[in-house]
Amino acid sequence: MKFKELGLDDRLLEGISAIGFEDATPVQEQAIPKIISGKDIIASAQTGTGKTAAFLLPVIHQILQADDDQSNIKALIIVPTRELAVQIDQQMEGLSYFTSVSSIAVYGGGDGQSFSREKSALSQGADVIIGTPGRLIAHLNLGYVQVSNLKCLVLDEADRMLDMGFHDDLMKIISYLPKQRQNLMFSATMPPKIRDLARKILQEPDEINIAISKPAERVAQAAFILYDNQKIPLAKYLLKAKKLQSVIIFCSTKNSAKQLSKELKKLEFSVEDIHSDLEQGEREQVLRDFKNKKLSILVATDILSRGIDVEDIELVVNYDVPNDGEDYIHRIGRTARAASKGVAFTFVNEKEQNKFYAIEKLLETPVPKGKLPASIGEGPEYKPRTGSRSNGRKKYNSRKKRK
């Protein structure tokens, strides 16, 4: 379906055309008319399905149609991470380019000056606020954020926010908002805790389900069974052999990300690592350099596994096995975006075999096993305990907030 068939404001259609969009994705096709009609919705949609535009477009449309000159905030979008807040604000800016609708992203990690700038902007008023829970509460508690005219609340990556322990923060924020409002909840997965949260917030919502918990068919997957000390040599071998221009390597800890990045730099690869030890400005600069192709390889912890929209990723490497099947799907979902194809490799050491087998069970298919090159040597046999009771799903509130 074409965007022009969805009843959107002409000024929005100009922005859509300028960006180069023409056909709506399935989640956009289903969500936009429902949101425009005023319905609450709960949507299961992974990153890469176009879910951000699925809520931004109708939210902007409704603000334009209301033609309300008041400076109060009209819509609030809550997200789990500062990176996602910045990305959504950038997409908001592009889509609303031919309108007068304003937005601001607020998030932690900066200095006192950044908080003061946010305070000044919020005091003057903006149509749409995009923010992380902790930062939003800090501003709301000080009393200058005018939400009395708020019409719409959006929770994006709701499952991620619960994983990070933000349930109480979300309920605190909602306590500041008017009871009469539209509520939109987007989540990559739909576990019981998300259902419980939806019952507290949404009013008779329509439900949308878009391709949850399965990797894209265009992703060619392979797992390498190896010893831990073979991981760095294999990473070097694969990167030298393939000569790729856009690679993300996911590590489970900051230390492994730093170590791998250091080893790759010795071989003069164009590489940087990104994790929570970096200052906010440093992280944003690394992301900009990667998106602009100034960097070929990004070594990252899970801060990039969801929500960050980087086009044309040729290869994703799980240097460490993700904690569960859902994280695996989100990590390899960085490649094969839109109509492109991609490759995802996972390194599995002896201690990670049971965890990886649990992921395969959740995916309901074995991942092909790659053969180690002769220069790396032989790895261990793949002998996971197949009787493991784990199903590859995470336990909520088991993760730390920062990696």
TrEMBL record:
Gene3D superfamilies in UniProt: P-loop containing nucleotide triphosphate hydrolases
Domain Helicase ATP-binding: 32-208
Coiled coil, from the record: none
Region (Disordered): 368-403
Annotated ranges, domain DEAD-box RNA helicase Q: 1-29
Keyword set, alphabetical order: ATP-binding, Helicase, Hydrolase, Nucleotide-binding
Any one GO molecular-function label of the UniProt entry: ATP binding
Domain Helicase C-terminal: 233-380
Lineage top rank: taxon: Bacteria
CC annotations in GO: cytosol
Biased composition (Basic residues): 391-403
InterPro entries (alphabetical): DEAD/DEAH_box_helicase_dom (IPR011545), DEAD/DEAH_RhlB (IPR044742), DEAD_box_RNA_helicase (IPR050079), Helicase_ATP-bd (IPR014001), Helicase_C-like (IPR001650), P-loop_NTPase (IPR027417), RNA-helicase_DEAD-box_CS (IPR000629), RNA_helicase_DEAD_Q_motif (IPR014014)
Signal peptide positions (record): none
Chain location of the short sequence motif Q motif per the record: 1-29
Residue ranges crossing the lipid bilayer per the database entry: none
Family per record: Belongs to the DEAD box helicase family.
Protein name: DEAD/DEAH box helicase
